[in-house]
Task: structure prediction
Amino acid sequence: MNRFTLLIISSIVIQGCQGEPPSTKPGAIIEVEYPTGITQAADLSEVTILSADQNYSCAVATGGVPYCWGDNETGQLGHQDLPNSATPVSLPTPLEPLTHFTAGLNRVCGQTVQGQTYCWGNTDVGSIKHRTLETPYQIQGLPKLRVLDAGGLFDCGIDDRHRVFCWFIHWPVEKDQFENAFYMPNTEAVSVAAGGLHACGLDPHGFVSCWGEWAVTLGPVWQNPPEGVGSPGDIYDLNGVPAMPIHAWQVPLPASTKKIAAGVNHTCALLETGAVYCWGYNLNGVLGLPLTTEYSANPVAVVSSGATDLYAGNLTTCIRRQDGKFSCWGQWLFEDVDLEACSSAFELPDACIRLRPEVTPLPRELSLLAIGNYHLCYYTDRVYCLGKDRYGQLGLGEAASTSTLP
Result:
């Protein structure tokens, strides 16, 4: 019987003065002192939203209060002077509680009950400006959104009319006036998945379209898409003025899609048939292909049938199966895998990856799952995290404990 160790995040109090957590092995307790004035208690026994990216994790507790922990290099924890935090800290928020929340590559975004959208952290990706925000920055002009997802180059949301809005596009750099939201008038969607340099939308009819950096969305052979696949168009600012040309390409999938999920360099689609297809870059075998295959421009069938839900991290993708169990592929995060060795090796040892979906020890009763680079968190009756903890992304603290489950 496989066994693995995970970390339980409970009520945690942060106190003290400035300090930075050392690099430690998973399972160790990190003691950190923080700047005076940042004293927060995190009760994560009742969580409505769970999100993770790269080396940090976030949860929204009952009442709409967001907490984050882990890497704070770009201010994504909401406190610019705070070192990496091994315990959850509450983000400085507007007066209203948050109804939507998402963690992106360098920042987090949330929406209040009144419909205002705010972001914290780095607003520039690949830009010479590199501005970091320690307080919420409101995205001007957005309507109330029903879906919200943060990525790398830009973040996106969808309103009740299925309109797609994105913001923080600094691509190319001289177009950085489009820091406020823009919309894509010829694209409608019911869900959106934002990656590092791309995003994909699922429309009401089950078709998937992607836009952004071509080398990440559908691969170099689609730089000039074949006839009927898609065509370039304009994105517009909120005044209806054309901003810049952009491609939105329909992905050739064999059946209607029910859910999409994106990592930084790949995207996966869960079809109505229970099959899962993925495309993009094959980092750590996340497409289920041998590591000698750098990317796939066309969707690759990773799961033939039986999937009921889909979750994507940057290096790991997971599904919930019809029997309630969870299977994952790409970077393996379970059992006794040496994640320090996996993250630093020039050639990945076989134990680091799974090229086909493999059953994990994740409990069937979990209701929320979020995957970062070399860690993941899930929620049952509280938040549990497992994996690499170099930046405190597992949420270890004085009140944390470890538990070994079958």
